[in-house]
């Protein structure tokens, strides 16, 4: 469909950002990935070819493709190509077990999966025989043959048919645990991405002179928010396949990196490597005194968010949308284009000061989980999207985040849902009951601890439980500590009393934002 | 229609901003107008009552109302009430002649006209008898009877039915000369207003702590841009009916005004009045040294726009949308959610460096002029809105504004179109030919000068020409100087050679932005 009616003049989607940059910032550097440096005009040419290559492989409006690899400029190229086509990209978590990976692919049902051999090829190879039975294409992005990414580009033409793509349709899909332990892909629209980019750009002081180091995993919305902000502002995105302190030092210096998503331990390594202070890191760390620096966001001193870190958000809202730099106390106030209510189970607003479920309305809200109509319906029936998170209104009208309706463990960057780990351990025949909690961890915020009740006659040690989990679920979700107990404390309704387990077995340090 | 489908969850219109402020900033001051100070929650209550009062008078989705008065908090109240209803408000220029006023009302065909008696009541009273023949309601906003504004509010209930209103529909209408000298109302959508507010907020460093002095006329988009930005950010709008230096001094001090739209001569008067420096004006003028201050925008030193004033925009794009603070040279680069092309008459992009017509696409583009389908169609047939302005691309991809396709005169805040003044003078039987030009004016940028050719036997002096215009068109459009000539220089195609008239009769100083 061509745009040829007056109302369509007011359309603008994610790909239109690239089209405009290609005219108004043709020779500015858009993308740096290893030795490859692309200007905005060059990026637009490559994206035209990728889009044409995808079309020739049958990808059309509404279709889905998946990326299972580490960070790469190609994730952005594929996303922009999808934006031009009206298709959808899911950059999937490669830190999953082979059965989990098979499940992610099966659920999202992509026409093409872009996979990576180096370091993370196992999840592909183990499942290879299964794939053959499906009508699904596999493209290795780090190979050189006919089935590889560069061959797909070469098959496409540098021509932009400027197909009409509605900015309210989904473009990006990000798997989240969706609070019940079963991974679901939250579908995010062009508008959600663009509006979050504007919000993040102001909060993080991102403009066309910014250089954003894509150093966190690109399947996390917290990383993408800043990267998209840099792209929309006409700045530079610098991609690293994996976090390596020595390479980061080189990049910060050479690309004048101004913004990054860097876990604290990585910055410690960088500083140790350059203890002599010979590298020019002033674009990212004007002073080497990191005392007042709050990982993982490295942003300029004059960025509003630097001084007001409180925030609330979730993948389903395209990231942080209630922000302390916008004012108020706790998590702060909602950004523009968003309404927030705190609701009780019946959908009525709770009185100020009382805890209610955070509900949202506005273009930042996801277009639902892929293939989960019943859940989507239940979470949005009255026109307000239920976040499954709890909040409270402060006396000044701003919001505080109370916690997830279901408890979550935060280890490093990862969200871990006890329900999922418990289900894994419960599958062991020796186990009669289990409760998984988070215990405080100096380095990673929390570690996973399982409190296990064995059947009368069973014998099972800590090592056996951990090894079982290591093979069944993502390694980072496995318990680090296993304790055994004769029984678990229970509430009058029969449910496990998680607060009592926390109190009795050293739990704590659960994520609180705001 | 109620929002009850999942996609509608992603809707957000201008009134939703107020709904959210009422929850998240309930006790912050939204509006100051004389002795009346309203918090956001109080403003939301009043707007609910205004909306209900309008509904009870028959205003529904798609209907239009008009404001013909000086600045007032009620303009914003009416606009927000229209946003809740799905109706449209036109704040009309009250500096027009009675026949022009009759024409504006006739063309926009509002269900209700809100008029003001003090100072500007003449344009109503002169036409009063004509109005009676129409099915149109008249509400005096500065009276106290049953047909007055406060009575309308009292007739409404503080209840918000939260009717669904599409953010892509028009909300605000602003009359512009539309480049052919005939006033047309540019219809601007919720989205255009909201996105411009975000852009202006960043450029002018507006946030919830800002206090914006609405000191320019509220029928000008350049004034509204900043006011809307302050409202959307949750800041304070301070309204003044007319510009009075003594009152402005009081307000700046009392309301900690941080932003204002102030013509240079007004600031001069303020400084003269407080030559002793006894007033605390530090919120607006941290230093009294006005050397580096660029009227009419008074914005903080740390605002990006303060240091890069270049810009291009027009009412039909909801104000300035190409901005030097976004980068580049000349007028700068387009903001987010906007594509700009430079086109030749056939609709092809002109080569870089050559002059072409500026064409735009994105949600900032107006929803067309009201009741001008043929013009709208001609200006947008291929999906790109033609601005009727000329631009050129700089080597770095940014844009320079070359000038209007039709020459315009800028006197103070007002755009004056020679074609309109010429038509007025040409109506005199003594006149055989006329060319209206702008001559440089130290105080107001330009003054209007008419070069008149009389019929052979006619006798007419400067005073007669000026007096004729004073009564036929808005006073500010009348020529300040009239010169008489035996003939006008002409181009080979028979048109008046405006450049030659400029050169021969002292023309110059035409507005150039960027």
From TrEMBL, chains A, B:
Keywords: Plasmid. Pfam families: AMP-binding, AMP-binding_C. Gene3D superfamilies: 3.30.300.30, N-terminal domain of ligase-like. InterPro entries: AMP-bd_C, AMP-bd_C_sf, AMP-dep_synth/lig_dom, ANL_N_sf, ATP-dep_AMP-bd_enzyme. The keyword Acetylation does not apply. Residues 19-370 form the AMP-dependent synthetase/ligase domain. One of its GO terms (molecular function) is acid-thiol ligase activity. Coiled coil: none annotated. Transmembrane segments: none annotated. Residues 420-494 form the AMP-binding enzyme C-terminal domain. This is Acyl-CoA synthetase. It comes from Novosphingobium resinovorum.
């Amino acid at each position: 469909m061509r745009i040829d009616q007056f109302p369509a003049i007011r359309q603008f989607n994610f790909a239109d950002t690239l089209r405009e940059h290609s005219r108004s910032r043709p020779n500015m550097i858009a993308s740096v990935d290893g030795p490859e440096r692309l200007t905005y005009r060059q990026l637009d040419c490559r994206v035209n070819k990728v889009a044409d290559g995808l079309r020739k492989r049958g990808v059309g409006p509404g279709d889905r493709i998946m990326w299972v690899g580490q960070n790469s400029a190609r994730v952005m190229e594929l996303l922009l190509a999808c934006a031009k086509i009206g298709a959808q990209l899911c950059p999937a978590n490669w830190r999953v077990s082979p059965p989990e990976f098979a499940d992610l692919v099966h659920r999202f049902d992509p026409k093409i999966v872009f996979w990576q051999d180096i370091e993370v090829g196992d999840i592909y190879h183990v499942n290879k025989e299964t794939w053959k039975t499906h009508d699904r294409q596999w493209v290795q992005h780090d190979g050189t043959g006919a089935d590889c990414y560069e061959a797909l580009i070469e098959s496409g033409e540098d021509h932009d048919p400027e197909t009409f793509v509605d900015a309210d349709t989904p473009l990006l899909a990000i798997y989240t645990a969706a609070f019940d332990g079963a991974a679901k892909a939250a579908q995010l629209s062009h508008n959600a991405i663009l509006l979050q980019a504007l919000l993040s750009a102001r909060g993080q002081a991102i403009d066309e002179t910014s250089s954003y180091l894509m150093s966190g995993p690109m399947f996390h919305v917290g990383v993408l928010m800043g990267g998209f902000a840099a792209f929309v502002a006409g700045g530079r995105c610098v991609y690293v396949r994996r976090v390596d302190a020595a390479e980061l030092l080189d990049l910060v210096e050479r690309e004048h990196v101004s913004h990054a998503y860097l876990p604290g331990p990585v910055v410690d390594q960088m500083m140790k490597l350059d203890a002599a202070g010979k590298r020019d890191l002033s674009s990212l760390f004007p002073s080497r005194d990191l005392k007042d620096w709050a990982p993982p966001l490295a942003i300029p001193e004059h960025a509003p968010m630097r001084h007001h870190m409180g925030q609330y958000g979730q993948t389903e809202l395209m990231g942080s949308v209630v922000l302390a730099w916008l004012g108020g106390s706790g998590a702060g106030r909602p950004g523009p284009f968003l309404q927030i209510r705190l609701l009780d189970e019946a959908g009525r607003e709770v009185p100020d000061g009382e805890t209610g479920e955070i509900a949202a309305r506005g273009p930042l809200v996801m277009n639902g989980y892929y293939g989960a109509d019943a859940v989507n319906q239940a979470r949005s029936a009255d026109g307000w999207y239920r976040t499954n998170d709890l909040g409270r209104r402060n006396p000044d009208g701003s919001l505080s985040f109370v916690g997830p309706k279901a408890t979550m463990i935060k280890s490093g960057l990862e969200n871990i849902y006890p329900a999922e780990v418990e289900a894994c351990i419960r599958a062991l025949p020796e186990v009669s009951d289990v409760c998984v909690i988070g215990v405080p961890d100096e380095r990673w915020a929390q570690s996973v601890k399982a409190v296990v009740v064995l059947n009368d006659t069973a014998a099972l040690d800590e090592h056996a439980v951990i090894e079982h989990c290591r093979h069944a679920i993502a390694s980072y979700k496995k318990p680090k500590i296993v304790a055994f107990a004769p029984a678990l404390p229970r509430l009058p309704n029969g449910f496990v009393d998680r607060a009592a387990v926390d109190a009795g077995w050293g739990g704590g340090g659960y994520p609180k934002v705001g």
